[in-house]
DNA sequence: ACGATATGAATGAATG
DNA sequence: CATTCATTCATATCGT
């Protein structure tokens, strides 16, 4: 599904001057991050094939550092990317699922779950059980190292935002080296891959044959308890 | 993967012309939802006469379920419809209502944030020091501008934090060398495949790959000390 | 056939 | 985390 693959191909590295397209005045170059396909590819790989959902400040730092070779990118971009990706994956599920029957596999019918930028990862699921990846709790642990007050464990993501915002300041000096000795790669759930907004099982819709708009609307507006 | 680019002209909305709910042949395989007039009518009714602006996930489900009798529709369509309708209404208003003052900013010249964020996160200081934090206060004064856009920094206090990182070193010749230690892990080898480098971003295919993605990812996933 | 416009879809960035 | 906002991309539709 990539009817639209063009665009987005933006060159890494803002050749500043920018000014975008036909704009007359040099309207401040795009103010927002435009991920390159490579960056997207890697982010998705981390997300889908490695179970990364809510990377820790430290991970965010490393990810952005690594992705920087493919184009301008900051920690917050990585942070937001995961934040959004996860949120949307849920949202679409929510729109279509609710407390009804689970309905087996939505067969990717809408959200381009992952299409546009490319993707299509081989859902390789390493045969080993991961402890339990980062989902859920944010690991803001070692903040202390930076001496930036450790309002530690303020698990608010907002706080984390701050944290890595700082880390960003220093990452350069660290030589950006990434050692890959670890082994705790947690790769679970790689099957959360595609599912769209679908789920419009025709079976559900039939009941409205006698549609009373008024009642319908009232139903919609009905308080949500 | 390759899209269902079928251009098959759909049963253009215009209600009823046979495609309504009655006809099964109406296969409209257009890539995007084309609301029927009935659907639009109801959506607008909800919007204008019932004040629905940002329906909840639950409402979205009910709305799409109800509108389904008038034609194919999914939750996301409803979601986007309201989203867009509201945004465009707002946008339109913005253009017509805009007073003649060029910038409509918080009037007081900025973000009251300064105090706010300082009080709340007192320790936030653009520090500069890789491993040894604290101390180094680094004058962030005239650093900045590495060619990055200046991004109006009045958005929110939260965002302001990033400003710091902007000002500071954000530019480092990243040599991101990645030392690979472990070799085993054999966990994920998802991205290692070269599948992607192909058509996507040809410009950057090989030459810039001094970067081993697998190691990179392992590094990211690496346990945090 | 175009070019402009309306609008569906997507997504980065925030906010609550 | 759920939601919302702002922008931008993509395409359907319509006028000339």
TrEMBL record, chains A, B:
All residue ranges annotated as the Homeobox domain in the record: 26-92
DNA-binding region listed in the record: 28-93
GO CC annotations, alphabetized: nucleus
Location of this chain's protein in the cell: Nucleus
Main subcellular localisation: nucleus
Presence of the UniProt keyword Nucleotidyltransferase in the record: no
Region named Disordered: 1-21
Positions with biased composition (Low complexity): 1-13
Lineage: superkingdom: Eukaryota
Single Gene Ontology BP annotation: plant organ development
Keyword RNA-binding attached: no
A GO term for molecular function: DNA-binding transcription factor activity
Keywords: Developmental protein, DNA-binding, Homeobox, Nucleus, Transcription, Transcription regulation
Family the entry assigns: Belongs to the WUS homeobox family.
Protein's name according to its UniProt entry: Protein WUSCHEL-like
Whole-protein residues included: 1 to 225 of 298
